[in-house]
Every structure is written in C-alpha cells, then in structure tokens.
Specification:
Layout (H helix, E strand, L loop, with lengths): L6 E6 L3 H12 L3 E7 L6 H8 L4 E2 L2 H5 L6 E4 L4 H10 L5 E3 L1 H58 L3 H32 L4 E4 H12 L7 E7 L5 E4 L1 H19 L2 E11 L2 E8 L6 H4 L19 H11 L3 E7 L3 E9 L4
Parallel strand pairs: 1-2, 1-4, 2-3, 4-5, 7-9
Antiparallel strand pairs: 6-8, 9-10, 10-12, 11-12
Helix pairs in contact: 1-2, 1-5, 5-6, 5-10, 7-8, 8-10
The protein binds adenosine-5'-diphosphate and magnesium ion.
Length: 342
C-alpha cells in the first residue's frame, strides 16, 4: 500500500469512544494512527495505545498541529475543543467531531455487539447439535446393555445376581433419561420442522449477519441466483448453515476478496455454492474441518463447531455437502438439498 492510500489519523479523547475507535482503526490496513490524546492521563485508551506502540499525549494542541495528518477524530464530547482544533490544525487536515464521530462510534459498537451475538449463537446451536449427536451415540450401546441385563434376569434365579442386575438396569435407564433430556434440549434450540424455503432470500439474510464477521471490509459480493430455488428444510437451520459458511469465507479472506454466492435448481434438487478467494484449506486439514472443535482460529474467535453443525444439518435433510479448496486461491462449499420430500 503506498503512502497516498493511507489515512493518517489522530484521536482526541481516550474514554470509551477513543477505545472503540482505537480498536477499529488498528484493524483497518489503510489507517495509521499518529497519536491519541486525552487531558486525563489515566484514560483507558491511553494505556491500550501505549501497549500497541501508538504515541500518547496529554497535550492536545501538539497533536492537533502535527504535520501530515489527514483526519482528526474528536470523541471528547467537549464543545470548546472544536475551537481549539480549528485554530491549530493544518488547513488540509479534515475533522470529524460532534455527532459525526458519535455515529462512527455507535456503528463500531453495534458491529462488535452483533459479532459477539453471532459467536454466542453459533456456540449454543453448535453445542446443542453436538450434544445430541453424543446422546444418540451413547443410546445405541446402552440399548444392547439393557437388553442383555433383562436376559440375565430371566436366565437365573440367584437372588444376589437379581439384585445387582436390577441395579444395572436402573442405572442404565437413568442414563437413557439423561440422553433424552439432552436431545430434547437440542431440539428446543433448533426449533420446528421442514418447510419449503426460498434459498435466495435466506442467502441475503445470512449475508447481512455474516458481514459482521470482520469489521469494515473491502469485499466484492457476486451473486448468481437461479429463479425460485426452493429447498425443504427448517428455515432457522438453513440460516445457521449459510451464516456459518459465509462467516468462514469472510474470515478466510481477512476483509479483502470476492465472495461468490450461486444458486440453481435441477431435477428437484436445490443447489447452493459459497465461494471465497481466501486462504484456502491445506489438504491435511480437509478431513478434519468437519470434526467438532477443530479450529485454526485464535481462542475467542473460533469454536470449531460451525462446520460440524453445517454437516449435521445437511445430513438431517438428506442433502450433500462438498468442499473444494486450494491454498492461497480460495475455497468453495457446495450444498445440494432436495426440493420436496423423497
Ligand atoms: N472458507 C474457508 N476458508 C479457509 N478455511 C476454512 C474455511 N471454512 C472453514 N475453514 C477452516 O475450517 C476450520 C473449522 O471451521 P468451523 O467449523 O466453522 O470452525 P471455526 O470457524 O470456529 O474455526 C476453520 O478454523 C478453518 O481453518
Ligand atoms: Mg466457523
């Protein structure tokens, strides 16, 4: 990136607003923070900034009058400061103050709130699906165990063995009860039954949410939608699948690239593909990405449940899920779902 593409910014005010902007600006590749100022030396963003190696000062005027500043963002909320800024800034320096900087701050907060909601939702829904899978796996051998225990009761008259086998059966039934509760809980979080769902609409809805996976991006979205593409699923679950896949795609592009969403319908099968120009997935990971808790993302950003969840849901509706990926080029996830009951 050349110097001309970069915006050099200073932040006035190191309270909540300053903290939020600091976080936003340090994540934007095109922005350089020349410094942050607050009259209060204990303001939270000052500490944060000095840890990041960004110059901090209590002398607002010295920062305002620096050479080569493109933008001054004033989040002090102090009306007198506007005059001070106007008197000391260079003529070519632009100023974002008052309600304009408040809107920017509100936006940053809104985005980070949605981001954490998204993470929580994915985690909860993922836990439900994962737990019900385990409950199901426990139930099968348990069934065999109980059946054989009943056999032993019939085969012997020894009262001591009877007593112990009855205890085994009782304990087994308690485990069955626990498994049923887990499954019921997972159903409650995953709601209703399948209906015909308009795929294009759901893709747009999901995109609105998944965009928040990284703050402010330079993304090109290409849509190649077929007409009336319908599939038979639970709409909430399809939404979850699409949000998961798009979030991964957007995260893999680190804010820059092309996301291509395509849909079509052939022989009663609805097809969806989500393609990104991101990092790609190394061949040795292709087997593992659907495993629960497999993640390559830092703690707090990845649960490793997204794709496990996607696979479970697609399987439930007798669909197909495929992935093609090239490291450094990008990844395409394709889904096929029946349009009507088989
Ligand atoms: N579109 C993609 N591009 C590159 N890597 C991906 C993509 N989708 C998934 N992955 C890889 O698969 C892993 C598992 O994905 P997922 O189950 O959604 O968990 P999480 O996103 O929480 O890490 C990710 O950590 C990442 O390494
Ligand atoms: Mg994910």
């Amino acid at each position: 990136m050349s110097n001309q593409d970069r915006t050099t910014v200073v932040i006035l005010g190191a309270g909540k607003g300053g903290t939020a902007l600091l976080e936003l600006f340090t994540r934007l590749p095109g922005v350089e923070i020349a410094g942050i100022a607050d009259q209060d030396a204990s303001a939270p963003a000052l500490q944060h900034a000095s840890q990041l190696g960004i110059p901090i000062t209590q002398d607002l005027v010295s920062l305002i009058s620096l050479q080569g500043i493109n933008l001054i963002v004033n989040v002090t909320g102090d009306p007198h400061l506007d005059l001070l800024v106007a008197a000391h800034k260079h003529p070519e320096t632009e100023v974002l103050g008052g309600s304009a900087s408040k809107v920017l701050w509100d936006f940053v907060q809104h985005a980070s709130q949605i981001q954490s909601q998204l993470f929580q939702t994915e985690k909860l829904a993922g836990m439900g699906t994962f737990a019900s899978g385990i409950a199901h796996d426990i139930n099968n051998p348990l069934y065999i165990l109980l059946a054989f225990a009943e056999n032993i009761l019939e085969e012997t008259d020894d009262p001591r063995i009877h007593e112990q086998v009855r205890s085994i059966i009782e304990a087994g039934k308690r485990i069955q009860g626990i498994c049923q509760n887990i499954t019921r809980y997972a159903r409650a979080t995953n709601t209703d039954n399948a209906i015909a769902v308009e795929v294009n609409e759901k893709l747009d809805e999901a995109l609105n949410i998944a965009r928040y996976a990284t703050t402010l991006q330079d993304l090109t979205i290409v849509k190649s939608f077929g007409e009336h593409v319908e599939v038979l699923v639970n709409p909430g679950e399809l939404f979850q699948v699409l949000v998961n896949l798009m979030t991964n795609a957007i995260q893999a592009m680190e804010g820059k690239g092309t996301l291509t969403l395509s849909t079509s319908c052939e022989n009663g099968v609805g097809k969806i593909s989500i393609a990104d120009t991101g990092s790609g997935i190394p061949t040795e990971n292709l087997e593992k990405i659907f495993d629960p808790f497999f993640t390559t993302k830092p703690l707090g950003q990845g649960t490793g449940l997204g794709l496990h969840n996607v696979k479970t849901i697609i399987k439930k509706y007798r669909g197909e899920l495929r992935v093609e990926s090239k490291v450094g080029k990008g990844t395409t996830f394709s889904i096929e779902l029946p349009r009507s009951p088989k």
